[in-house]
Amino acid sequence: MDEATRRAQAVEEEVAAVELGDERLNFRARRIAKRIGSEPGLGFPQALATEAELEGFYRFVGNEKVTAQAILDPHVQATVARAEEHGTVLVVHDTTEFRFGGRGREGLGIVTRAGNAFLAHFSLALSADGNRDPLGVVALKAWARDGGPTPTRSRRQDTASYRETRERPSEQDRWLESVERAEECVGGRASLIHMMDSEADDYALLWNLQKANRRFVLRLCYDRRLDEAATGALPGEKTRHFVARSTIRAVREVKLSRRRRAIAGGRTRRVAPREERLATLIFTASTVVVRRPTYAPQSTPESLSVNLVAVREKDPPEGAEPVDWYLLSSEPLDTQDQILKVVDAYRARWLIEEYFKALKTGCIFEQRQLETKSTILKALALFTPVAWALLRMRALSRISERFPIAAVLSPTQLKVLKKETGLPLRKNSSATDAYLAVARLGGHIKNNGPPGWQVLGRGYAKLLTLEAGYKIAKSETCDR
Length: 480
Known about the structure:
Helices cover 42% and strands 20% of the residues.
């Protein structure tokens, strides 16, 4: 059995493997997942064929025996199986917020002054072979805020209790919790390299990652104080000044894509729009010893030795925001290839942003009419593998024209898609061919530019519906 066939089989088993402790609940979960998977861009009343199915769905998500984690587990298990095939994989960790309109919803809270919202922290596995193949979600944590101060160790809440504040639980703990959860799920069947943006830059996290021998690439947020003697730094010198006078280890020309609008950066910083340009990037790398900041828990060591890669743009255009990355890593930096490998690994982080778009736009998750946090989280678990399927189809279509169509479509889906669109799809067609065919099924017009998440979601929904009908018709023919 080749790799593409094994992956296709793993995807088919993601729903079938659900185990809720009751066969009737298992059957209902499989049925609901197939229905909403076939119509990810529709609301529940439209996606579920009959009033009885809709009522059954609401009973299912309202059942206390059904948990979001139990619904998600089959997808996690299938993701681990795909990770094992690769041996080494990247795991991108990041948080997104979900906002819902209408009246108050039980259990939801406040995110940046908006009600009816909650936060979710995902861990998305990608292949580390340069293709960045999305393999699936290995960990998910969700929580709501109550409108009070956000739990954090770096904020001094009152002078008398400052020492206690440094030791208390914090939202920052989600980064380490997700790393350990991912490692636990994979169970040593693959080696994980954890990717985190600058929001994760935390001294206690660095210490815990090193203590557990975890592999990581983490973007630096703070200009950290250095141990001058251990690093060979000048008196009072911090990371950025130290890097600025370090020897250049590599130079590369990179085409920067156009960014149409401002996006959120680490620590609430806004990243400005930009025009497409060819940038010359310079790379430096060294091992530095950073000192413990005042807000870090006293249980952490006074200093940590960590590898640091800096990526800076040479002579950026006037008025343009230059590329300026500082990456902390566990990975070796002895050669130019090793340095560039760390940077390329971090560049894969943007795929989790695309995954969030697949959930919010392709699956219209924030428009779901559910009234409690419990039912919303169960729905999120149901849509997690659907959004992954959309992401994988889009991501693989952009990797290479030679990437096989079998990696994103089953033989039945290929047969149905070919018949419905009239396109000359074959077993040796590419993932790009599949992506464009599915988008056409959703109403995409080639002259309108690359397909968006909504049209891709509609096309995939229609494909799954046609596939289900084909299987039913074939089964009835065989029974005669």
